[in-house]
Amino acid sequence: MADTPAAAPASARVGWSVRARPAAASLYVTQPALSQAVQLLERTMGTALFDHSAREVRLTAAGLALVGPARQVGADLAAAAAAVAAVAAVERGVVTIAAPPELAVDPLVRLCAAFRSAHPGVQIEISDIDRPVADLVRGRSREVVLAFLPVDAPGAVTVELGARRLQLVVPGDSRPGRGPVTVGGLADVDLVSGPPGTAIRDLVDDRLAAAGREPRVVVEVRREERIGELVAAGAGSAVLPEWSARIARAAGVRVMEFDEPWVQRFGLVHAASGLTPAGAAFVEAATRHP
């Protein structure tokens, strides 16, 4: 009986039934259930797997041929169960995230670092936002989207994580006026800016348009991290998030505050249902480490 695959029960003959009791007990099933399973397996295979004519039940040639594949199936099932359990426990898996370039450094870097610290076996895939957030969420091409808020994504779940404060950075040798910067004052400044459609540029355009003014953009560059370098080189001034302004300050620029808070809210957007365990864990971790 030691060579009999666990999935192969025996026939209902009396001689086999007596010998089947220890096997059934080792598998934690009843003897009749084990015997019926053997009969079903033999009918499925279309041949006898056990020779019941001798005093001891022995495997036939067909039964011996089944032993190796049966053990492999058992091992594969165990591996599959372990893989599923690992994903459910967020020990393995993949979480796919889309984010605009402006948020890909801060806060996405620290969000990913916090998540990977808690779940080192989970892979993170990051891509740019290449279509409306609603389309990304609806089509599930990306499980979680990091975006500026508010977003137009009906039916999606939005988790606000925080806001980034904006400041004006000016070349170190410039002579800006005293006090905080007003919207009217910003309209008179030569600006280094991202193109229309980028988050800060749209905010600047909207604020100045509300005051009946237009920005005086002298250099346009898409990559936000290059803007501070251009300001440090004297190309113009720029509106930057606080962390970028702090980096640019080390290069010799001056940092000025606005007369009223300029902030950009950001958060995670995902479908209302269907998050993988890894995706749900990422959202949970992000809310703990916004």
Q: Which structural class should the secondary elements be placed in? A: alpha/beta
- Counting structural domains, the number is 2
Poorly predicted tracts of residues: 1-18
Can you summarize the main beta sheet? Answer: 7 strands, mixed
- Supply Rg: 33 Å
Q: What is the residue-mean pLDDT, rounded to a whole number?
A: 85
Summarize the SSE layout with pairings:
Blueprint: H1 14-26, H2 31-45, E1 50-51, E2 58-59, H3 61-88, E3 94-99, H4 108-118, E4 123-128, H5 133-139, E5 144-148, E6 157-170, H6 183-187, E7 190-193, H7 199-210, E8 216-220, H8 224-232, E9 238-241, H9 242-249, E10 254-256, E11 263-270, H10 277-288
Parallel strand pairs: 3-4, 3-5, 7-8
Antiparallel strand pairs: 1-2, 5-11, 6-9, 6-10, 6-11
Helix pairs in contact: 1-2, 4-10, 8-9
What does this protein structure show overall?
The chain is of the alpha/beta class. The chain is 41% helix and 20% strand. The chain is built from ten helices and eleven strands. It has helices at 14-26, 31-45, 61-88, 108-118, 133-139, 183-187, 199-210, 224-232, 242-249, 277-288, and strands at 50-51, 58-59, 94-99, 123-128, 144-148, 157-170, 190-193, 216-220, 238-241, 254-256, 263-270. The strands form three sheets. Strands 3, 4, 5, 6, 9, 10 and 11 form a seven-stranded mixed beta sheet that branches. The longest helix has 28 residues, at 61-88. The radius of gyration is 33 Å and the shape is rod-shaped. Mean pLDDT is 85; it is low at 1-18.
